[in-house]
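Deliverable D2.4 — example input (C-alpha cells):
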C-alpha cells in the first residue's frame, strides 16, 4: 500500500502578525500538526511543506519578510520538499500535482492555515483533480472574519462551516489523534 502524503499548508510566522490584531481559533492546531509531522517522519512517509509567497507588498507573507518563514515546528528538514505558491491553491503555479503523480497518486492528508482560505482552496482543487483528500480538521485554524453586513463571524464558526462544506464531497474529515491511531494500526 502506498503511504499517504502529508501536506502542511502555510504554517508560517506571518499568522502571528494577523493573530496580534484578530482573534484566532484552535490554538492547539500547531501541536496537532507537529504530532502528524513527527508520525510521518518516524515512518519515513512522504511529506510536502507548502509556503505562501505573497505578491502583495504589505503582506506579512511576502518573501524576505520574517512572516514568510516557517513556524519553528514546521521547518523542513534536509531533503523535505517545499512547494512555494502565490495563489490560495497549492496546485496553482506549482508542481504539486506532478509531485503527487510521481509518488503514485497517494492519499493526500492536509493540515494548515487558514482553514477558509488556502486549506479549503487546496482541498477542493485537489479533489477536483482526482486526488483522495483527507482534512485533519483539528490541525487547522482560522480567524474571526467580518461579514459584509458588519457582523463578525467567530473563527470557530468559520472553521466549522468550511469543514462541513468539505466533508464527504471534497474530503474525508478526521482528527489528528484519530488518523495517527488508524494509520498506526495499518502499519
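Example output (designed residues):
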Amino acid at each position: 500500500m502506498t503511504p499517504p502524503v502529508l501536506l502542511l499548508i502555510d504554517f508560517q510566522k506571518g499568522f502571528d502578525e494577523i493573530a496580534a490584531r484578530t482573534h484566532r481559533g484552535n490554538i492547539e492546531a500547531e501541536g496537532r500538526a507537529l504530532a502528524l509531522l513527527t508520525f510521518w517522519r518516524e515512518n519515513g512517509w512522504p511529506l510536502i511543506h507548502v509556503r505562501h509567497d505573497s505578491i502583495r507588498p504589505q503582506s506579512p507573507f511576502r518573501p524576505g519578510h520574517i512572516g514568510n518563514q516557517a513556524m519553528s515546528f514546521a521547518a523542513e528538514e534536509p531533503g523535505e520538499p517545499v512547494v512555494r505558491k502565490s495563489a490560495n491553491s497549492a496546485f496553482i503555479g506549482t508542481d504539486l500535482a506532478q509531485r503527487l503523480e510521481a509518488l503514485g497518486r497517494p492519499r493526500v492528508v492536509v493540515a494548515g492555515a487558514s482553514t477558509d482560505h488556502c486549506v479549503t482552496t487546496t482541498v477542493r482543487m485537489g479533489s477536483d483533480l482526482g486526488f483522495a483528500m483527507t482534512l485533519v480538521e483539528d490541525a487547522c485554524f482560522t480567524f474571526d472574519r467580518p461579514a459584509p453586513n458588519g457582523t463578525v463571524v467567530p473563527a470557530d464558526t468559520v472553521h466549522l462551516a468550511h469543514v462541513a462544506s468539505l466533508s464527504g464531497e471534497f474530503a474525508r474529515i478526521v482528527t489528528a489523534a484519530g488518523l495517527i491511531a488508524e494509520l498506526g494500526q495499518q502499519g
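The mean pLDDT is 96.
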